[in-house]
Amino acid sequence: MEVAAKTRELSGEKAQRIVEAMRSSVARRGIAGSTFEHVAREAGVSRGLLHYYFGTKEALLVEVVRRDTEHRIARLDEPLARAGSVDELLEILVADLEDSIQNDPGFWVLLFDLFTAGRRNPEIQREVAELFNRTRAHVAEILSAKQTEGVISPRIGIEAVVAFLFALADGIALQVLSDPERDHKDVIAASTAAARHVLAG
Question: Are 187 and 172 in contact (CB under 8 A)?
């Protein structure tokens, strides 16, 4: 896809400013209120540059989520590589999830908004699906290495394990953000136990 190709070629300081401006705008105005005009002004670039590189607001939103997701996964690479047991691995994943929900809820809000937008826009749906596929494939590589090391003995295939873990994380994030006043420790504990059962063989 031409727009996607342009998006992935964008790099450097201007690109980062644009992405950060869109992330900031969505957090304050929501997706509907985050226009190219707002983002261009906040990023200190021309509106035409946003159109040139991204084509559409939706493509820029996907780029924001893509960069955030890749950063989060890359940040987990080293700790997960050191994990010597199922419990250590789960502790790392749960801590990262809780940190992201607490300190960067905008990431999850944008992710869920993009999913909803994808129901109406096939281009967004394709881009989000491609992003999820790349992310799941990367995590599957990590877990496959853990299986080879004997750290985990999954009861189901690695790809199914990854999909299961992502579903748990998405569900927990949705519940916490929907009802922040509630104590969600029981849900997190139950999800962790379910993940342990799947990973421990």
Answer: yes
Distance separating alpha carbons of residues 34 and 4, to the nearest angstrom: 20
DSSP letter string, 117-173: HHTT-HHHHHHHHHHHHHHHHHHHHHHHHHHHHTS---SS-HHHHHHHHHHHHHHHH
Domain range list for the chain? 2-200
The structure tokens listed for 197 are: 């059962």
Distance CA 81, CA 12 (A): 29
Residues contacting 150, CB < 8 A, separation 6+: none
Give tens-digit pLDDT for 62-77: 888 888 888 888 889 9
Q: Which CATH architecture has domain 2-200?
A: Orthogonal Bundle (1.10)
| Cβ–Cβ < 8 Å for 138, 166 | no
Give the span between the Cα atoms of 64 and 113, in whole angstroms: 12
Q: Tens digit of pLDDT for each residue in 138-176?
A: 999 999 999 999 999 999 999 999 999 999 999 999 999
Tell me the mean pLDDT in the region 2-21.
Answer: 65
Instruction: Determine the Cα–Cα distance for residues 50 and 8; give it in Å rounded to an integer.
Output: 13
State how far the Cα of 193 lies from the Cα of 146, in Å rounded to an integer.
19
**Is 0.85 topped by the overall pTM?**
no
